[in-house]
Amino acid sequence: MVQQVTQGIKISVLTEFDGTFYKNRKMQYAFAYNITIENQGKDTVQLTSRRWVIKDSLNNTVIVEGEGVIGQKPILKPGERHSYTSGCLLFSPFGSMKGHFNMINFESNRKFSVAIPLFNLSAPFSLN
């Protein structure tokens, strides 16, 4: 598990290899990741958007930006957490992801970013 705290918001990440398949005659490697966002601060916050940088070992890079996470914009009171699972496809059995969540503090109306720490994606069959 990879974890990081930014401005009182703790991000924890667990990953899982989901298998391989062919799409458009190219091998794809599927990975799932579970993100837990925990408000360790004293103010209520809301996740408004996210930005991901996804890389594979063949130097392919994909940027993903959008509102919320899996169709939600969770509001977290102090001590609350929100977890979700999503996934990505790579063209190689190794890669990594990192990014950030854009948040708003309801008490101060201040916008801020929370780092999503770099985490690795690797197919177990390709490890020595």
From TrEMBL:
- Enumerate the Pfam families for this protein: DUF525
Q: Which domain of life is it from?
A: Bacteria
Q: SUPFAM superfamilies, alphabetically?
A: ApaG-like (SSF110069)
Matching PROSITE patterns, A to Z? APAG
Please give the Gene3D superfamilies that the UniProt record associates with this protein: ApaG domain
Database matches in NCBIfam families: PRK05461.1
Q: What is the protein name given in its UniProt record?
A: Co2+/Mg2+ efflux protein ApaG
Organism, by scientific name, is Aequorivita xiaoshiensis
Read off the lineage from the record: Bacteria, Pseudomonadati, Bacteroidota, Flavobacteriia, Flavobacteriales
